């Protein structure tokens, strides 16, 4: 079997997951989602030498002063298929994943420090952004600290803002990302639609935390609410805002006064968000101040 393999990739492929010459076994569960009591354990045979030359983490694990002597290594942070695909990449540079199961590979690539695999995942994610996975990818982009993927996510959110805000994934958005979102000048969405989505996000958050929906104002806080641009709404749209009771009386009055006389001082920004597909400049505003400009 080994004799017919004509290059190193083919030779390594012959070794993948067979016991022959194996000197280490990974013990993983069949699925991460099984209940812990009845986890079905699987054993994956591997080869220290191959792992150590692919990953500095395995190198230390097998060759360092505190080298692992145990031949069986229990892994509880990945499942059989995830580990198999990860090893397949190490042995053969081939790997199979899709939008639903890429997380484990990104995790393993980071944990064992294999940047070429991380890059492969990034390229895939960048080409497969859609409104159902965008917040998940945004989280990944922060986890792996890839600024360019992070920017691609925000560009996508700008462009598809309406769809993104209507997706159920939107409810999973972190509060810190929501602050980022509401500060964006370049969202392709009407202010009233943005308001409605954020109000729903807050109501959902209250539900999750077992709070009354009255608490939405506290959940959002001034840093989100004050970055909404009520003055750009039509008056009938602002009536919708009023009916939610999200704004304090004082802020509501401020907006109404400003509708009546635009010279009235107001804390909210008064210019519409502008999506411009041709523009590479992205500007963030906060209380009328330009915070950050990047390409
Ligand atoms: C992801 O799912 C595909 C299709 O079921 C499968 O071929 C692939 O091995 C899976 N990858 C991982 C990392 O689980
Ligand atoms: C982000 O990922 C891309 C594509 O893999 C890569 O070319 C780039 O160097 C990465 N940037 C950072 C800061 O890691």
Short description:
The protein has 295 residues and is mainly α.
3D architecture notes:
The protein has helices spanning 8-15, 48-54, 56-63, 80-92, 102-111, 115-127, 134-143, 147-159, 161-166, 175-183, 191-209, 216-220, 222-225, 235-244, 249-260; strands spanning 24-29, 41-46, 72-79, 282-286, 289-294. With 295 residues, it is mainly alpha-helical. Among the domains are: 1-96, Potassium Channel Kv1.1, Chain A (2-Layer Sandwich); 190-270, no CATH class. The strands form 2 sheets. The chain has a 3-stranded mixed sheet. Helix 5 runs antiparallel to helix 6 (115-127) and helix 7 (134-143) runs antiparallel to helix 8. The longest helix is centred in the last third of the chain and has 19 residues, at 191-209. The chain is elongated, with a radius of gyration of 26 Å. Mean pLDDT is 89; it is low at 288-295. The structure holds 2-acetamido-2-deoxy-beta-D-glucopyranose (2 copies). One 2-acetamido-2-deoxy-beta-D-glucopyranose (NAG) is lined by residues 119, 122-123, 146-149. The chain crosses the membrane at residues 49-67. It holds the Pfam family BACK. It comes from Pocillopora damicornis (Cauliflower coral). Residues 22-99 form the BTB domain.
């Amino acid at each position: 079997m080994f004799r017919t393999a004509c290059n190193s990739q083919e030779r390594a492929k012959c070794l993948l997951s067979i016991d022959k010459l194996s000197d280490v076994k990974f013990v993983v569960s069949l699925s991460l989602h099984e209940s812990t009591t009845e986890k079905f354990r699987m054993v994956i045979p591997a080869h220290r030498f191959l792992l150590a030359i692919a990953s500095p983490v395995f190198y230390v694990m097998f060759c360092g002063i505190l080298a692992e002597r145990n031949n069986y290594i229990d892994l509880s942070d990945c499942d059989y298929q995830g580990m198999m695909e990860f090893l397949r990449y190490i042995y053969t540079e081939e790997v199979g994943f899709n939008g639903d199961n890429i997380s484990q590979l990104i995790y393993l690539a980071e944990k064992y420090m294999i940047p070429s695999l991380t890059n492969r995942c990034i390229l895939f994610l960048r080409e497969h952004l859609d409104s159902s996975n965008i917040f998940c990818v945004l989280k990944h982009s922060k986890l792996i600290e890839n600024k360019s993927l992070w920017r691609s996510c925000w560009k996508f959110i700008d462009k598809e803002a309406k769809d993104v805000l209507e997706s159920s994934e939107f409810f999973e958005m972190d509060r810190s990302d929501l602050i980022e979102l509401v500060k964006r000048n370049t969202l392709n969405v009407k202010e009233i639609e943005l308001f409605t989505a954020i109000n729903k996000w807050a109501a959902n958050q209250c539900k999750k935390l077992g709070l009354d929906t009255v608490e939405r104002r506290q959940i959002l806080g001034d840093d989100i609410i004050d970055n909404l641009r009520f003055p750009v709404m039509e008056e009938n749209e602002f009536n919708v805002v009023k009916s939610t009771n999200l704004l304090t009386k004082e802020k509501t009055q401020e907006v109404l006064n400003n509708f009546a006389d635009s010279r009235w001082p107001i804390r909210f920004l008064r210019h519409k968000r502008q999506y411009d597909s041709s523009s590479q400049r992205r500007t963030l505003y906060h209380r009328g101040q330009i915070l950050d400009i990047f390409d």
